[in-house]
Amino acid sequence: MKPNLPKIVKTLKKMYPRADCALTHANPFQLLIATILSAQCTDERVNKVTPVLFGKFPTPRALGLAPLKDVEDIIRSTGFFHQKALSLVTTARRVTEEYGGRAPRRMEELLTLRGVARKTANVVLGTAYGISAGVVVDTHVRRLSNRLGFTNQSNPVKIEKDLMVVVPKKDWIWISHALITHGRRVCGARNPRCGSCSLAPVCPSAKPAPRP
User: Which residue has the higher pLDDT, 53 or 3?
Assistant: First the structure.
């Protein structure tokens, strides 16, 4: 089946009209830190760790001056905690010294921060600042973009480029949150629930319902 991409987007809008970022945050800097932590980790786990982290180090300056061991102890459960702790402290220090304690508002500036690639930068720009600079591509977006026929690429950068072509710019911020939500609720990696999926009629990868 050739994918009807406009129909897929329209159906997703009906299903998840208010899809939004699941990472708990109070400001753009906290979202930046939370997104760095979310690499190879669930948002649920990050949301359990960040209240402790920001409770002990409430400002970019405080986190930038934090002993690495203290940060590592707090974020250990998120995985790769040695590298993540170094990224958090280094990024907090640079944000304090070069950006007045606020997360940058430009893609080029965000990408110079330790631990930040396009996914993280797009999360911050889109969710914190409402800036449509690109599309967030995480594991869910990568999987669903292929299943739904938005792309046949496996590289996140190439997937993002394809999504930016087929999805209207006004929907770039929303589409990633919608796909992530659908990936968590319905279209799992191992056992997609095609039988109960509203996208099944227009999804080129939908499995046919079993015969009675």
Answer: 53
